Every structure is written in structure tokens, then in C-alpha cells.
Amino acid sequence: MAEEQVADAPAPKKKKSSFLIVIIGASVAGLVIAALLYMFVLKDRLADENDDTGSDLLTAIGTNADDPISPDVVTVDFIESVVTVKMPEGSDLPASYLSFQVTFECNNQSTADLVNKHMARFVDLVNKEHEFKTRAEVGNPRMKENMQKAIRLKGNSLLLRLQKPGEIDQAIRINKVLHTKYMVTDN
Length: 187
Known about the structure:
Helices cover about 50% and strands about 15% of the residues. The protein is built from 7 helices and 4 strands. The radius of gyration is 34 Å and the shape is elongated.
């Protein structure tokens, strides 16, 4: 009988240790479920209803700190233009065409007003920057970016010349040039 009691003694320890493991496992699982519930359901419901910062949206889509956009920005859209693309020498192929449209992102309304007042000068500037490019150049994405930068720099230079010499406003500037259309058509 004493041997039976000794044999029975270790059995309850196994039950206690497995019972303890089940309790710890259930506790960890409960904590994980509670954390997930908070993250996906309760967090948004518990947030302040007056918080309209859109931080969740900005986090979801990402932000670009290198490209801040001022609330005073005004855009000026240009009409669509078409220029002939230079073909390689000795080529019997018909000329290709570059169809494009740009938008100026002006720093403020004063800049947009000045651009609109002298629209013909700016259209000429934009067209000259697109003309006389080769087919290889207009097909290169870097060339498009280089044209945007050149147009912005030349446009800002023109804006300085259009202002009265003693009354130059540094806030009058073009922040960015964007292509809203850029398409090469091969015939």
C-alpha cells in the first residue's frame, strides 16, 4: 500500500503543472485578444470626436516632409500645347509630337494674379522649354523633371522682373511646376 501511495504522489504534481500551464496560456491569449480588440475596435471609438486632424489618414497614406504644401497655395492651369519632337538625323520616320499641359503651384494669390496678368509670357516660356527636344529626351522621365525645374526657375526669374524694382515681394514665387499631361505620339 505504501508503494501505491508513492506511485500516486507524482501524478497530482503533473496535474497541477499542466493546470498551471493552461492558466498561463489562457491568460496570455486573453491579453493578446484584449490588445487586438483595443487596437482595432476600441481605440477609434475612445478617441476624441472633435479631433479632426486626420492623423490616421496621414499615417495610412504617408507624408512627405520634404514637400510641404502651404494652405495659401493657388494653382494656375495652362492650356494644352503640342510641339514637334526632333527625330534622329537621317531618319525617314515622320516626326513625333509631344502633347503636354502644365500647372503652376503659386505661393499665394498675388503670384497667381501676376502669372495670369502676363499669361502670354509664361506660355511662351513653358513652350520654349519643351521645344526642340529629341525623341530620346522626351521619353526620359528625368528630362520631364528637369523641364519642370527649369520652368520653375525661369518663371521665378520672370516674376522678379515683372515686379517694380523697389517693391520686390519675396513671397511672389512659383513653388512647383506640375505636368498634368505629358504624352508623346509617334506617327
